[in-house]
Structures are given as structure tokens and as C-alpha cells.
Write a structure and sequence with these properties.
Elements: E1 3-5, E2 13-16, E3 21-24, E4 32-36, H1 39-53, E5 61-65, H2 68-73, H3 77-89, E6 91-94, H4 102-107, H5 117-125, E7 128-133, E8 151-155, E9 164-168, E10 173-179, E11 185-192, E12 198-202, H6 207-224, E13 228-232, H7 240-263, E14 267-271, H8 272-281, E15 287-290, H9 292-306, E16 312-317, E17 323-327, H10 333-340, H11 350-367, H12 370-388, E18 391-392, H13 394-399, E19 406-407, H14 410-426
Parallel strand pairs: 4-5, 4-6, 6-17, 8-15, 13-14, 13-15, 18-19
Antiparallel strand pairs: 1-5, 2-3, 7-8, 7-16, 9-12, 10-11, 16-17
Helix pairs in contact: 1-10, 1-14, 3-5, 6-7, 11-12, 12-14
Length: about 425
Amino acid sequence: MPLSFLAPSFPVLLINPERKIKMAKIQMTTPLVEMDGDEMTRIIWKMIKDKLILPYVDLKTEYYDLGLEYREKTKDQVTIDSAEATKKYGVAVKCATITPNAERVKEYNLTQMWKSPNGTIRAILDGTVFRTPILVKGITPYISTWKKPITIARHAYGDVYKNTEMVVADGSKAELVVTDKDGNETRQLIHEFSGSDGIIQGLHNIDKSIGSFARACFNFALDAKKDLWFATKDTISKKYDHRFKDIFNEIFENEYKEKFEKAGIEYFYTLIDDAVARVVRSDGGYIWACKNYDGDVMSDMVATAFGSLAMMTSVLVSPDGIYEYEAAHGTVQRHYYKYLKGETTSTNSVATLFAWTGALRKRGELDGNAELSSFADKLEKATIDTIEDGVMTGDLYLLSTLENKTKVDSETFLDEINKRLEKLINA
């Protein structure tokens, strides 16, 4: 069962005598699904709630602990429960979590190497991941022409992430074999290995998932009012990649062409290598839809080229309009070990903070709660203003070209955001 925190039905008056803030807490009618996480991001998660959300919002969440210890305790059932709750309530916010490797299994005394929570949630929601960089003055993209954010839409199903692979001995013959429902076999030669050992790999995808990916991208583009690009290598992969191209085109022509024309935006298809060249020459401002592996690589490339992975928003969107917001980065393990030793850390909390603001804004939009959406906007502005005023964490300090800048620790950074948030609210 989830742990739920539900707001009372009456308004709560917030009076902070130290900062002289007086306002009624913003009320929520529908809960968010809150998925807690691991290590340093778990620490930051609580700081953000305590300092920047709970003083202003009568927060309603249905809470799920996705920390590795509790996933072990529940045999990962908590991850499944959190995804099902997200389907129920429509909006979730997720902290970064550990996907254990062999070293982590030993460290946390796990009974097995539990799967990625993100992968489990994506599969249940049938979602597409959209990642967008957060731009601030003083941090210049490495690509000089980039003036507007580039959003990467990553298909989060199949391909190499669900592959079957084998090491093949010299002298072997590898074939692709498909057995239909009546037991009939179709065979195609992959390779005859002569003179050398080798390797083979089998990939798959399904039309239903590709269709969901396409609809999520088209809907997101309409919502954001941005052009949508899609790219594969259909000239080489004449069946696999071409299937993606055909499904996207069919859905666009039948369901979205008129909507795009009315919105004044474009759907553009090209080859993946041509898309990369066009992206580098562009000024940004569009959504770039990629197959699973392409999206994995290109989202990190775009994040790094814009400045920092810690300045990257990430939202999982299902084709039927369910949203799960998270940071694009991991649990910041190195900072967590320093924190456990009592050492001061300067962890960038911006992506985690924007996961909260994204979820609060979407909850406000879906519930017709303009006050909640406005609060999310103000909190994001306060965060950007803090950085552009020269107050930032260590990673941004190294990147920023501002003349007057100060490196602060994790907690001080959030305190500085709160000072500016109070001013925006009072104004």
C-alpha cells in the first residue's frame, strides 16, 4: 500500500515571521504520484520539498519509495504499483534511482539484480521520453548556432535494449528463424562464419509500440507548438527502420496533418545522418524524435553540448496523455558518499527541481488550477534568476562565463532560490 499525504480541505495560512511572507497555501484537488529515489538525489529531493514546495503548497501526493532497499523488500512490486498509480492519477514525479549492477548487488545485499525502475515504468505506461535542456545566461552551448532548446524524444521500447545476442564459433551458420502461429518456419541467412569466430544480435520492435511512440511525439509537438523531426536509416534497414518511417507517416497523414497545419508547425522526416548534420547547423527550437539507441546517445550529446546533464528536463509521456517527470541524470553517487562522511557537497539540483515544477504545472493544467501552475512558473524563474545572478553549484561555476559568480553548497543554492521565490510571490 502507498503512503499518502493528503491536504486538508480548508486553506492553511502561511506566516513566516522571519521573511514576512503571508499567503494562503495553494490547494490541490488531485494528488501527484511521488516516487522517491536513491543516494544524493534522495537527500536533495527532501530539501526541495521542505524548502521550496511545502511552505507554499498544501501538497497532495501518493507516495512510493523506489529506493533500492524498499524495492528489494517488496521484490520490486513497489515499482509496478507506482506505475499503476500514475495511470490512475495521470501525473507523477520521480527521483533518480539506482539500477543495480553486480557491485551494487553486493553493496546493498540484494537477492537479485533488479531491473531499471525507469524501464519498468516506461513499459507499463507505454511512454516516450522527452528531454529538453534548460538554458541560462552565462552558460553558452558548445554549438555556437544553438539559440533555442532542442528536445530529444526517445522511443523507450525494444531494439538493442531488448536484444538477444550470442558469441558464434568459426564454422557456424547463423540464421534468422520465424515460426508463425501455425508452426510454419521462415528462414533467412544472417552469416556463415568461416575463418573467424564472431557475434550475432537479434532485435525486435512491435507496431503497437511504434504507433504509441508516433502519437506521443505528434501530441507533444502540438502541445509545445514546435516542429517535429524524425530520423532513421531506412535506406539501409529496408524493413526494420522503414517500418518506423511508414508507421509515422501513416499516422501523421491520417490523424495529425490538419492539426499540424492549423498549429503552424511541421513534421519533417530525414535520414539519421542527415538529421545529425542539420541539428549541428540549426539554431534549435524543435523536437527530434529518435529510435531507442539513437535517443539514448543523442540526448546525452545534446545535454552536454548545451552545458550539463544536470540542466536537462525529462518527462515520460504516454500516447493517452499520462505524464511522469524526472531528472535526466543519476543518483550522484560520489556526492552521496561525501555527504555520508559529513563533507559539504555542491550538487546541482536544477533537473530534480524542474521535475517537481513540471509535475506541479501539469497537475494544475489538468485540474484547472491556475494558481498551482503559476507557482511552478515562479519557482522555475527563481531558479534561473539565481544562476543568472551568479549564484550556482560547482558544476555550473566551472561552465559559467559570468564575471561575478559564486560557488555555493547544495543547501545554500536552494536557500538562494527561495529568497528569489519569495520576492516573486510578494510581487
